Amino acid sequence: MGCCNRECGFLVGAAFGAVLAILGGVLIPLGDSIIEGTVKKEAVIENGTTAYENWETTGSAVYRQFWFLEVKNPQEVLDGETPMVQEKGPYTYRTRYLPKQDIRFNPNQTVSYGQPLGAIFEPSMSVGSEEDKVTSLNLGVVGAFKLLPPKILNLLIKRTNSSLFQRRTVREMLWGYKDPIFKFLVGVFVPYNGSVDGDYTIYNGKDDISKVGIIERWRGETSLPFWNDTYCDMINGTDASSFPPFVNNEKPLFFYSSDICRSVSATFERTVNVKGIDMFHFTLQSSTLASPTVNPDNMCFCPDPKVSKNCTLAGVLDISACQDGRPIYISLPHFLHGSPSLREDVLGLNPSEEHHNTFLDVEPITGFTMKFAKRIQVNMMYGPSKDVTIFNKVKDYTVFPIVWLNETAELDDETADMFKSEITGRIQILKTLQMVLLGIGLAQFVICLICYCVVRSRNNKSATV
Q1: For 94-115, how does the pLDDT look when each residue is reduced to its tens digit (9 = 90+)?
Q2: Is residue 282 helix, strand or coil?
Q3: What's the CA gap between 143 and 188, in Å, rounded?
Q4: How far does CA 461 lie from the centroid of its chain?
Q5: What is this structure's pTM?
Q6: Helix (H) / strand (E) containing 360
Q7: pLDDT tens-digit readout, 313-333
Q8: CB 90 within 8 A of CB 66
Q9: What is the Cβ-side half-sphere exposure of residue 360, based on CA atoms within 13 angstroms?
């Protein structure tokens, strides 16, 4: 009787273990379904969702840090020597602190809005004040290089006693000063304060969560008006503040940046942990600004073969088409991923992948960008001219660096704790429960089954004897 009880007990234990294992196995797809349903609900951009709260007003502080490439030998450059620059900064401003404005929900499951722009100086995060002076390119003179006939430009330069270089305050260089040639405000970021980026129209994700945040229109159009090419004028992806949930790290992330007037992509590099949350680290690739000889897709971003050395120059993007014809070129800081000639024409630059590349740290389940660094360098171009005195000794077209910026943000501790408790924490508890039930159930099933077989074998031998 005792032996029978033991055999029955082991069978019951094995059966119970099987039930636990089955329960754990069932919880895996069930749990995944619950997680997916919750994320899909909260990722929709509409009143009351987590996504809407983070989207309407940026929760984390966003900063723009500026480093000027100050010219150390301005007079020698006029005499024909190679320019030498030295980095000066950072000068830090808080940006993107204003909530989105004129939010309109459209019948086709899109939402339209404008992003107000503003900058507040942060002295504690800067090397000096906004009144610090830097020696840099004369923005008015170089801006007129392609806009005015050479003889007229030369006359205006002499009349206003202007030169190729000037000494201006940080505030003037960034946000504007009255130019003696043009008689209106010029500056690297004019207009900025008080202006609006947009109007954007994006999908809210209500009918298809895989499209949430993706830009449908910018300034009322589904394509850009700058490049005269179907491929280059495409508006791809989101604005990079978030992406559709359930991010696949085998696919690139696409986003549009109005700062550079084009769409770009970033590819997965590695998994990182930010404040206890695992994220996918995406970086901008060197092919983004590669010359068309290396990346043929970039041919439509090469409007001036003369300046770009027959479109072989890598690392710079001519955005004059979206800057009213001014010869402005965008690059990564210190010409990272650029042709060596860029750093030979202007000395003192030292590119670094760590400090100068753009990256996004994206939480893969929700698609929220939790940490990022957008790094851009603003350059202007000038070249030789027999009719403009200050350009007489210039040997070749020069893409000259003025300032580079690092726009960066990282989720704060409070948001990180909330995210872990409300989302990742619950997901981890559910997954742990799944694994515990599955593990304990399988272990109990196997052990009880083995014990049953052993006892059964012994009982059979005893009965035979």
Answers
A1: 999 999 999 999 999 999 999 9
A2: strand
A3: 11
A4: 73
A5: 0.86
A6: strand 359-362
A7: 999 999 999 998 899 999 999
A8: yes
A9: 26
